[in-house]
Amino acid sequence: MISPEQLQALPIFADFDPRSLRTIGALFSRREVGPGTVLLEQGSRTGGALLVLAGLVRVERAEASGAVVAVERLGPGALCGAEEVIEGIPRRVSHVAEGRVSVGIITSSDLSELMDGRSRVALCFQLAAVRAMFGALRRGNARLAGAGG
Description:
Layout lengths: L3 H5 L9 H9 L2 E5 L4 E3 L8 E14 L5 E7 L4 E2 L1 H6 L6 E13 L1 H9 L3 H29 L1
């Protein structure tokens, strides 16, 4: 479980009511991991999604040549792996702990229920997921703009 206070400290959940935060937090299990732990593995279809609570997670992609390319580093508030669960596709990248990391894990079925739901709690979570995904899109656009000149 993730406490409402922990969720509210993350920008994507900052303005949510305590009841919604309690309900959402109860759907997550908390996990502490050490450096180098693979949290989500490229190509896998297993597991749910992660919410980074503390520490940094490195996003990397293995290329066909065997090279591993670091894509970005994510900190607290990042929602990882939700897109692949929603789309029902293999993971496009791996997520690896850099140092000690604390994450919340939500199962694929609980994530799908929240994304399909119409309750106040489900709508709050959907808004948080959209905020997280827009953040990822902005970061990707910034990387492309920097690489393209």
